[in-house]
Protein 1
Amino acid sequence: MADSQPSGLGEEKEKEKEEDKERDRKAARTEKSKEKLGLTETLRVNDTNGGSKGKKRNLSDLSLVRFITTELTRGYFLEHNEAKYTERRERVYTCLRIPKELEKLMVFGFFLCLDAFLYVFTLLPLRVILALLRLLTLPCCGLGGSRLLQPAQVCDMLKGFIMVLCYSMMSYVDYSMMYHMIRGQSVIKLYIIYNMLEVADRLFSSFGQDILDALYWTATEPKEKKRAHIGVIPHFLMAVLYVFLHAILIMVQATTLNVAFNSHNKSLLTIMMSNNFVEIKGSVFKKFEKNNLFQMSNSDIKERFTHYILLLIVCLRNMEQFSWNADHMWVLFPDVIMVIGSEITVDSVKHAFITKFNDISADVYGEYRASLAFDLVSSRQKNAYTDYSDSVSRRMGFIPLPLALLLIRVVTSSVKIQGSLSCMCVLLFYLGMITLKVLNSIILLGTSCTFVKNAKMEEKLFDPPPSASSSRANSKANRVKHTNTSTQQEPTIDKGGISQASDILLPPNPAESSTPTLPKSDSDTFLTTPDEEDENKIINVDTGLKGDVVGHRTPKKDLLEIDRFTICGNRID
């Protein structure tokens, strides 16, 4: 009993303690809630009582002196947007690098055009003479092979005959009468004529090389019947007509420039120079990719070289009129420098803003040089399928035959050759041109090999030229691609459980498709032929999965496949 009483008292005390703790907790909770309510009420009272005072303070703070002080002492931190400002700085550096990189490309392209231009005056006559000697010595030596002449010799003879016939036709054109006829026109009319001539020159250049290529292939392709050789005649007449008309067009262009040089107030020359700045407006604010910029760069190279030849023709005609007085050359010199300077300035500004607006790096011009160098190196190989001058014509649209024909016509009419001393001077001048051609070719070949090696393009040089079977297979695959997109059928399940589409053809012969193709400059390749690395990547149109059948795919654009006669090469802007 004694033990049970203390234990019962202890339990009662513990219960009392717990009840006291609960009362204390409830009291603390009620006090906290009262305090919160009191605070909110005091805040409301303070807000209502101090509203007028706060408004008075805010009105006193809004002073003109305080605003000016804030504007003068306000700060900001550019490092909070470091990526944005770094990108802007890189754009400025790229714009400053563009003129230097562009001029490197222009100088390299100028010497490429000069090499193709000198070829017409130096090596082409010698090659034509060698081909004629081979024809004359065939009855004595006999036929050593199945061909009378090699394909390159046939093309050289065709070029020589075209030059001779067109020169005889150009001799009937009176340059002086054309000059006075153009001089009698008004300034605005001459400005319109000059713009029309530039457009016509681009159109002639884009279509002329196709005419010459058609003639070369028609004359050299294997023929089973002798009657098939007659087809060369209409192609030859068409080529002669084209070269003659293009030479006449360039002559009118040179005559208009000569009239601008000889005008008293130089207003026509100023208007013609301002036409270059209009080119900036037509091209800067357009969307450009790397391939489109490559097109424009090639066009600018060709245009600049053509302007240099036109200026040379103008100087020759003016020097002839002033009896080759050296003092008159200094009168023409400021105008020549002004035309060249405006051309360089316009090209630099145009390319700088195009690369800025399209986020193109300045290193892209190094890739363009490598592509031009690849054309030069590949044309020097034993398995080359085109002449170097023809590859330059396809790439840049520069056709040297009409321009060389006009220069020969102007030189022969301006310089009179009489006596043995004059003949000796002409011979020495010809030997000097051959020396310049050889030195230029050697330097260009060495520089081109360096560019190709730095661009790691040596492996493409050892690829064999494209065969007719592979090109037919590629064109057939492209035709199948369009038929698959237009007519789609449901796949059928065969016995083995494999899904097959009835509207999809099998891949071409492995022997044909495995042949590597050398990058070409033809427009057909750019438009229809798929890339070599995409030959094995076949996509089903219905499922979008890769398979072993030909499906829809987009050809990959490469710089080596771009020339003036592709999609963007024919734009005139």
Protein 2
Amino acid sequence: MYLSLVLGFILITNIYEVSCQNGQDEQSMYWSLLQNIKNLANTDTERELAISNIEELKDRSLQLMDIANWHKFYNARSFASSLASRNVSQKCANQTGEFLVEIPLNFKAKWVQQMVDAAGKPGSGLLLGNMIWPGAFKECLGVRAEIYYNRSHSASTKPDDTFSGRHCLAKIPLKKPNPGMQFMFIGIQWGACFPDSCSADDVTQILNNVLDDIGTNITKGLQVWHTECNLDDRRLDTKATVVLVIAMLFVAVMLIGTFLDVVFVQMPMRARLSVETEGLTSHLVKDGDIISHINASKGVSENESSPLLGEKKQHAGPSVCVKVFLAFSVYTNAKKLLNTSQPKGTLTAIHGIRFISMTWVILGHCMVFGLGVVDNILEFGQELKRFTFQCIINGTVSVDTFFTLSGLLVAYLTFKEMKRVKKGLKLNWLMFYFHRFWRLTPPYMLLMMVYVPLMPYISSGPMWPQAGFELNQCEGTWWTNLLYINNIVKKNQMCMGWSWYLANDMQFYVLSPLILIPFYYSKFLGIMMSMLFLLTSLITTGIISRVDHIGVGLGVDVNNLQNSTNNPNTAFDAIYMVPWCRMGPYIIGIWTGYILYRTDCRIRMSRVTVIFGWAIATASALAVVYGLYDVNNGHPLAVDTAAFYNSVNRTVWGACVCWVVLACATGYGGYVNTLLSWKGIIPLSRLTYCAYLLHPIIMFYYYYSRETTFHLSDINLLFSFFSFLVASYGVSFIVSLAFEAPMMGLEKVFFKREKNS
């Protein structure tokens, strides 16, 4: 069936090359003359006769073109005249028809050759899934067509009509497409060059008319689902203009804040320190603004040991207005981000785990987000069977690492805060929630504000979506992201599809007091409540997997990607991104955080216990990552076994991560702790949140700005991965300085103001 579809589309792209019966006699004469010339050219004595035959051939060829192409000329005119009656704009129909006429009559014209040559053609690798034929994008844009109705015109005659080329990419699905998953489109993508008077709807209608008119079994059922046409004359719409203005305001505030910080804080402070060094203590600078800002100048930053609910009241400082500008200081915020000092009691190994997990996420997405532009999609299934690829196909547990760390830190820090205020219920729970919302939401929403309206304008190419990568530019769904319910409400139209993780994490955080408060007052009550949540999550996941016959992992049968009986969309929607199936690792993290709090990170274990713990954790982690090797090589699990695996594998992974944190925090980490606690990782760990938000956008930009397809191979993926890793963290540093670090500073400004009042 697949080959039939491909062959049918090849037939469509070459429809105008069919010769007519009227030219058969002349064609025989043509080849006879050609053979005669070949024979004569082999002898020197008859060269003059050969030349005369060549002249005759030239005349005959011109006659042959007129006779053989009249049928095509007539059909092109007839087809063009029918387009206007088929919901195609009149100008597009006329110019398309003129182009079709010019192919046989004026093929020597450069613009005709360009338009024909710019059309995509099937290449090699059809059996590997090479169904993307984008054509020559820039060659099409360079077309400047001149049409003359009078064939005997002079060189100075003004053309009767002119147009430029517009590249369009038509998508013909082989299975029902998901509008919200454009990068996972499965079908034929064909690029062609059309007159710039044609819109995407015109091109869709033209191609569908061609498919209908052919009327063969090969093309039966084929319809163009969507067409993208480049728009070089695009102007920024209102939303994009407003976003640019807001972005410029942010830049202005950052410049002002940096100027105030450097001139009125850093320089006087350095002068004061210089005076102190010289022993001239009588000349100390006593400016209150400088003293109040000295802690920020030293690079003091928030970390795992910082209280969740704010700090104690400090002495008066500069005005609120000045503090607001200082919160945007690039100089101070950069020092905070790059600071590697950690206070006593910090769980330093978490920094390394966080960064490594983020690199794993980028590695997996590096391959997934590029599937919409690869030319060997079917070969991809064979690659997934390799043992070394198991860490990629099962790399979805990298997200569960973040769930685990989130639960661990929330428990560890909240229990310490409860201890500080003496009673758990006296904790300011309103600020408990506000701090989390303010910590995550501003950079999240601000990045969405910049990404969604501006993404359509930052690049172009044959595969670049003119309307952006988000369905309807998130007009009806952005509020679900703001409320962190986008993984439950309108999830099939989710804005920034990778943000499902943020929704889950916030939902777990909202529910966490139901476990933390009982734990604080009674270990038994805490265990019972957490077990209730854990068992509910495990049982629910197992039941859904069993009822829906979901395969292990994401439900993808790598042994038969083309005709997989498992629906990955069902697995993703039903168990992958919903909170009731993902809370297991979070609960395990809460348990570990409670243990570290109660023991103050001082646990004595025997050598045998430590070795046994590391052995069990390592074996379990390897089983989760590599245990499906046989399954991916033609030995599927029974439905019940698959349901059990889907139910417990993520929780087991979370337990393995917790052992690493526990061992490192209590002095049993050895070289693992040395590696994970390396100070050079600390700044990268702080940038992980922004890197998670940004890295898919960078991948979209690279993959869909290409003018050619991407070939999946080890070397291509390796270099792409390192490029994405560096680019993601590099851009994250800038975004953090603009959207993340200032917001944490503003929280301190207004929170202290409230306490002072």
